[in-house]
Amino acid sequence: MSSCKITGGAGYIGSHVAKQLLEKISHNVIIVDNLSTGHIDTIKKLKEIKDFRFVELDLSQYFLLNGLFKKEKFDVIIHFAGSSIVSESIKNLIKYYTNNTFNTANLIKCTIYNNVKKFIFSSLAAVYGELKNNKEIEESFETKLINPYGMSKLMSEDILKDSFSKNRDFKYIIFRYFNIAGVDIFYDKGELSPRIGEKHEPEIHFISLIVKVITGKKDTLSIYRDDFDTKDGTCIRDYIHVEDLANAHVEAIEYLDLNDSDIFNSGFGKGYSVKEIISTMEKVIQKELNQKIDKRREGYPFFSGANNNKIIESKGWKSMYDNLELICKNAYA
After folding, report:
1. Is the backbone peptide bond immediately before 202 cis, with ω within 30 degrees of 0?
2. What is the average per-residue pLDDT within 293-319?
3. Strand 53-56 vs strand 76-79: parallel, antiparallel, or unpaired?
């Protein structure tokens, strides 16, 4: 049985990875989270699936963190903890370099000093910056950063790569996320009934913002410009269901047993425009949504689409929920 430490496991993506691991008898899970953006309610819901150890700890607390490593003897680290709002990173870049880069360096240091061999890291497509030709992004593309959030993640990637070059027994997988949507796929009496969901304050995910409009928690949905060089003038995003993304992380644990370190884009390999997302959600709820055209947000590219050939061909990864209507229905469930 492998022992998996998940940092940020009380958050959106980390909790879904934890859920999938808890459902497997071959993994022992320990979650570490400072609960600054994660939720204790999520931890309680995960414990209803299977009991595990939860440690409330900030990754900046190096000596406490290292003590945990010495006590628990982990086989793999899956690292989600960090700050994740583009607009906030522009206003408060020091916070992002501290939470995302310095704290990751602390975690990697503990990982290596305690002879943990596997490290799975959540990065993001923001490391590629703005593309001018609306071309699906490949892992080999040059990084052209346009916000501190992306820079903080790319610096963390570089620390991982440098650490690997000095420790050949240490292996890593870097997943570069595109847009994540949906929640726990769980059916109760034939109906979608998620056990764990998505909580952000402030909410940053577009489909979840649509749900806020539907439920009356938000009056109007903002479309940040409609005159871009795209098929309908609105931004293009590649949406991946959180269950598929979580599955890629779970599979990466065994992948590293037989394969070298690598970087993978995590997307469905297709882009949807803002207007297409709205139209699909309107179809699901069978009514029109209040919307308005707003000014462009600083630091956000207008096109972000994944080329996912590498993760399919190298890892044999297969998506289970590549259906925009299902994603919208699941997010609203």
Report:
1. yes
2. 86
3. unpaired
Q: Letter for the amino acid at 305?
A: G
Summarised one tens digit per residue, pLDDT across range 247-269 is: 999 999 999 999 999 999 999 99
Q: Is 182 left (phi over 0), alpha (psi -120 to 50) or beta?
A: left
Catalytic pick from 12, 96, 97, 149?
149
- With a CB cutoff of 8 Å and minimum separation 6, the contacts of 21 are 4, 6, 27, 29, 250
Separation of alpha carbons 264 and 100, rounded Å: 19
Told to judge if 96 belongs to the known catalytic residues of this protein, a careful annotator would answer no
Question: Rounded distance, CA 297 to CA 202, Å?
Answer: 15
**Closest among 282, 302, 304 to 225, alpha carbons compared:** 302
Q: What are phi and psi of 169, to 5 degrees?
A: -85, -10
Q: Give the distance, in angstroms, between the CA of residue 100 and the centroid of all CA atoms in the same chain.
A: 13
Closest CA to 35 of 59, 65, 67: 59
Which 8-state DSSP code applies to residue 9?
T
**Number of other CB atoms surrounding residue 111 within 10 Å:** 24
Task: Answer yes or no: is pLDDT of 114 > 90.
Answer: yes
